[in-house]
């Protein structure tokens, strides 16, 4: 499964079948469906990456990181610190 589009084209926001979400440009594994959770944002939300090298993080603010594919540097969105489903968890 790869993502992401905006303006109504995001098909994986409400998709909860088992699997691994990969980069849409290089198929690098990013997130597991096991870490996916329902969220009000228009994009899929995850609590963790598949591996430590799945993504590259660039600090934007104290509570947000820009997230890039760990292999090809494709822009994926953000990690929001302490905005996950449980206290202390991040939301990708």
TrEMBL record:
Localisation per UniProt entry: Cytoplasm, Cytoskeleton; Nucleus
Primary location class: cytoplasm
GO MF entries: L-methionine-(R)-S-oxide reductase activity; metal ion binding; peptide-methionine (R)-S-oxide reductase activity
Catalytically driven reaction(s): L-methionyl-[protein] + [thioredoxin]-disulfide + H2O = L-methionyl-(R)-S-oxide-[protein] + [thioredoxin]-dithiol; [thioredoxin]-disulfide + L-methionine + H2O = L-methionine (R)-S-oxide + [thioredoxin]-dithiol
Keywords associated with the record: Cytoplasm, Cytoskeleton, Immunity, Innate immunity, Metal-binding, Nucleus, Oxidoreductase, Selenocysteine, Zinc
Pfam families: SelR
GO cellular component: cytoskeleton; nucleus
PROSITE patterns assigned to the protein according to its UniProt record, in alphabetical order: MSRB
InterPro entries, per database record: Met_Sox_Rdtase_MsrB_dom, MsrB_Met_sulfoxide_reductase, Mss4-like_sf
GO biological process, one term: protein repair
Domain of life: Eukaryota
Segments forming domain MsrB: 1-92
Cofactor requirement: Zn(2+)
Family: Belongs to the MsrB Met sulfoxide reductase family.
PANTHER family, per the entry: METHIONINE-R-SULFOXIDE REDUCTASE B1
Task performed by this protein: Methionine-sulfoxide reductase that specifically reduces methionine (R)-sulfoxide back to methionine. While in many cases, methionine oxidation is the result of random oxidation following oxidative stress, methionine oxidation is also a post-translational modification that takes place on specific residue. Acts as a regulator of actin assembly by reducing methionine (R)-sulfoxide mediated by MICALs (MICAL1, MICAL2 or MICAL3) on actin, thereby promoting filament repolymerization. Plays a role in innate immunity by reducing oxidized actin, leading to actin repolymerization in macrophages.
Record's protein name: Methionine sulfoxide reductase B1b
Source organism: Myripristis murdjan
Organism phylogeny: Eukaryota, Metazoa, Chordata, Craniata, Vertebrata
């Amino acid at each position: 499964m790869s993502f992401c589009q905006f303006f109504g084209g995001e098909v994986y926001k409400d998709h909860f079948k088992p699997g691994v979400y990969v980069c849409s440009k290089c198929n690098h594994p990013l997130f597991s469906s096991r870490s996916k959770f329902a969220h009000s944002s228009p994009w899929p939300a995850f609590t963790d990456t598949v591996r430590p090298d799945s993504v590259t993080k660039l600090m934007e603010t104290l509570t947000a990181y820009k997230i890039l594919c760990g292999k090809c540097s494709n822009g994926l969105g953000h990690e929001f610190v302490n905005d996950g489903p449980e206290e202390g968890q991040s939301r990708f």
